[in-house]
Design brief:
Helix content is 5%, strand content 48%. By secondary structure, it is mostly beta strands. Strands 11-10-13-14 form a 4-stranded antiparallel beta sheet, with no helix packed on it. Strand 8 and strand 9 form a beta hairpin. 34% of the residues are buried. The mean pLDDT is 93.
Length: 176
């Protein structure tokens, strides 16, 4: 078996995987996900946040078999060659915990080890009917970045955080 994966073009994070390649496999992302790939997270009390990843920000790759990518796609990444083609083997990304802090004035992302070079971070934050799309980078030799966004104290949001080279997080977060 081999896999088709949808991944974030800017960070390489796998955001979806299916056991379909070869004849009958979609040739492009839009044929597979439409205009956007919705990722959902429970906010509790019967509420769900939907964080749509725009198809223009995604790419599609046929990769080697990696069954864990079907159940935990955000733990894997796609590397591309110098020519911009995806490599066939997925990369297991290092995990991190307790690194997401949502405040009234922004989202702080903290990884556990200082990064060697500037590291792009893409984040989506749900907010009622809208989704805030945030982008920035963790500076070289640092562990965190604060992405500006204005939120209401005490509110609860769905958050998707994709720091390049680190496992992605999809979770519920409260504004402190």
């Amino acid at each position: 078996m081999a896999l088709s994966v949808v991944y974030a073009a800017d960070t390489g994070h796998v955001v979806g995987a299916l056991a379909l390649t070869g004849v009958g496999a979609p040739a492009d992302v839009a044929a597979l996900v439409g205009r956007a790939l919705p990722l959902r997270v429970s906010l509790g009390q019967g509420r769900t946040a939907t964080l749509p990843l725009n198809a223009r920000d995604l790419a599609l790759a046929a990769v080697d078999d990696e069954p864990a990518a079907l159940t935990d796609p955000l733990s894997f990444g796609v590397e591309v060659t110098g020519e911009g083609r995806p490599k066939p083997a997925l990369v297991r990304l290092p995990s991190w915990t307790d690194g997401i802090a949502l405040a009234k004035d922004g989202l702080t992302v903290t990884v556990q080890v200082a990064v060697a070079r500037p590291t792009p971070v893409v984040a989506l934050v749900s907010d009622e009917q809208d989704t805030h799309v945030l982008a920035g980078e963790i500076p070289a030799q640092q562990t965190q970045v604060k992405l500006p966004v204005t939120l209401t104290a005490g509110s609860v949001h769905g958050v998707l955080v994709l720091p390049a080279g680190w496992a992605g997080h999809l979770e519920k977060a409260a504004v402190t």
